[in-house]
Amino acid sequence: MSGETSEDATRLPAAVVQAIYRHARATFPNECCGFVIGSGEDAQLIECENMQDRYHAVDPATYPRTAATAYTFGGKHLRMLADSLDSDRPATIVYHSHPRVGAYFSAEDTRAALSAGWPVDYLVVDCQDDEIREALLFRKHATDPAFVEIARFDGAKI
């Protein structure tokens, strides 16, 4: 979790990683998004619909980016994530893909994560035209607003 050192948070089961990769491929060339509740073998994947294009269509001045370069959770999933944070089995990871640009924690990712304030790590998936190259897991640094890489997951030909 954010600001803590937890081996469980970096131990995503291979099946969950592969499911995230399949989600990224299914939504390509748009960004996918979702979150993971629990950790280790207890991890449960929640795939979310990226609502960014809907927000952009209604209010392009406020939402200038499309789903090709941004993600927004819908209300149902946002509520599910928020409720989990007050439970015995909280969300531990929020994930999204970066189509064709690599896995890195962007300035926009940092701004959104700091604004949300969720005590989670962030997984960014490098989704290319013909493969998933890798995924990187980031955690907020304990003493400054930076997010640092804490784990790396090999890609797959999906």
Question: At the fourth CATH level, what is the homologous superfamily?
Answer: Cytidine Deaminase, domain 2
Structural class, by secondary structure, is: alpha+beta
Mean pLDDT: 92
Beta-strand fraction estimate: 25-35%
Beta strand count: 6
Radius of gyration of CA atoms, rounded to a whole number = 15 Å
CATH class: Alpha Beta
Order of helices and strands: HHEEHHEHEEE
CATH architecture: 3-Layer(aba) Sandwich
Shape: globular
Number of helices: 5
Largest sheet, strands/sense/barrel: 6 strands, mixed
Uncertain segments are 1-6
Going across the major beta sheet, what is the strand order?
2-1-3-4-5-6
CATH topology: Cytidine Deaminase, domain 2
C-alpha termini separation: 28 Å
Number of domains: 1
The share of residues in helices is 25-40%
Keywords: Hydrolase, Metal-binding, Metalloprotease, Nucleotidyltransferase, Protease, Transferase, Zinc
GO biological process, one term: proteolysis
Protein name: Sulfur carrier protein adenylyltransferase ThiF
Organism: Enhygromyxa salina
Describe the structure.
With 158 residues, the chain is of the alpha+beta class. The chain has a single domain (7-156), classed as Cytidine Deaminase, domain 2 (3-Layer(aba) Sandwich), CATH 3.40.140.10. The protein contains 5 helices and 6 strands, in the order H-H-E-E-H-H-E-H-E-E-E. It has helices at 7-10, 14-27, 52-58, 75-85, 107-116, and strands at 33-37, 44-48, 91-99, 121-127, 132-140, 147-156. One of its GO terms (biological process) is proteolysis. Keywords: Hydrolase, Metal-binding, Metalloprotease, Nucleotidyltransferase, Protease, Transferase, Zinc.
